[in-house]
Amino acid sequence: MTELPAETRLGAIRLRVGDVDRARSFYEAVIGLRTLGVTDGLTALGVEDGRPFLELQAAPDAPPRPRGTTGLFHLAVLVPTRADLARALRRLVGAGARLEGASDHLVSEALYLSDPEGNGIELYRDRPREQWPRTGESIQMATIPLDLEDLLTENGADAAVMPPGTTLGHVHLQVSDLESAEPFWVDALGFGLMARMPPHAAFVAAGGYHHHVGLNTWAGIGAPPPPEGARGLARFEVVLPSESELDAAAERLARISDVERAEDGALARDPSRNAVLLRT
Description:
Largest sheet: 9 strands, mixed
Order of helices and strands: EHEEEEHEEEEEEHEHEEEEHEEE
CATH topology: 2,3-Dihydroxybiphenyl 1,2-Dioxygenase, domain 1
Strand order of the largest sheet: 11-6-7-8-5-12-15-14-13
Structural class: alpha+beta
Distance between the termini: 22 Å
Number of strands: 19
Strand content: 35-45%
Number of helices: 5
Shape: globular
CATH class: Alpha Beta
Helix content: 10-25%
């Protein structure tokens, strides 16, 4: 099996939203991102030192994504340090946002909430790789309640914005079943299978990361895709280090999926109709 290069990373995730102004205000005031550009109905957000990693596509007439369908479970914003995660928590509290969960995953610490249109969001920080527990080749992850009081003991001045170095760390998808998802994401695209909790979840990544893409069947095994053009996930980007790596990955995917080539890369859909754009 051909694996993606270790330098592979995620680029931007694009969401279709019904009320783009409301969504942008939320991501700025509550999450701490900044608008970096608006072009042809597409609002790009990120942090001041980097490329945008969240795109809001204005789609006022798009139908809502029905419950029990495949699509986005959450997008995960990775901050550089534990102190940055504590600042994010204080920002959420100050904005009156509703926290839906807070977990210690052994490899990371995470906060969970949703945007105004119901898109799930994870804010997290990674522990150093040498601290990640392993069993053989697999990384061990768990879901343990996070001690928020201990997190808030982290020192540092509060900030209204996310710090430089903040990125899209991973994307967690809802799929109809793992038996069809893994051949797409692992065998064809080339992510490594880092952890599996059959029949409900699997985690895949490049370069030994704990996961760049999460896959789960929590919407129900056999869940259908949402209507074409529904609100929610439009696509997300996997960024490869060279054109030759992009061409090779697109060729592997084309054996099991339709692949559309365009100036900005190669677009493919997994068996649950989740769209991924490969680019350099």
